[in-house]
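Hey, can you fold this one?
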Amino acid sequence: MISVLTCIFLQITIIIRYFKKIKWNLIIIPAIFSFITSTIGVHLMVDFSAKTMSLLLGIFLWILAIYLIKFAPKIQLSKNIFTEACVGSLSGLSGGLFAVGGPPMVAYYDSVIDDPITYQATIQTYFFLTSIILLVNDLIYTQFTNRLSLFSICAVGGCLIGTYVGNRILQKISMQTVRKIAYIVMLIAGTYNLIQGII
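Sure. Predicted structure:
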């Protein structure tokens, strides 16, 4: 829930800043399928222990990072309903399970968008729509305590600082650099979660 709340603040700031760059035609179909599968993911999530969830997330991130680094450059995903339904469904499922619905959409938007700012505006708008659904599902299954409120406030503060710095950097780097950063973050996060799941 903390992750989803923090992401919503990040998404709102980016949407306001880059609203004219949003590619709405690349958002609608993935978002619809994500709404359906995210509910399934949340249902599955409540039945797993924290250790199991960390282990599964670590494996998932490593598999996706390897795909993006080794295979994605050789595979051109198409802009069609079938592809968007598949990536939206996988994004919703992983979002419901791990609160990490980004990697499948990174793979798709990375393949069909070449401009860093258009990429960021489109993917964050998609995340905003799906985060609202995830938050509703989380509130149904999780009690929002005072402890969660404190962590959320700290997380949002860090997110706003990170967004400001990230926006300044985004205007000065290429899409290729954005891709490399995304892959490195996935590998680091995957390794961290694998360790958490094993220890």
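Residues 116-141 form the longest helix (26 residues). Let me know if you want another pass with a different chain boundary.
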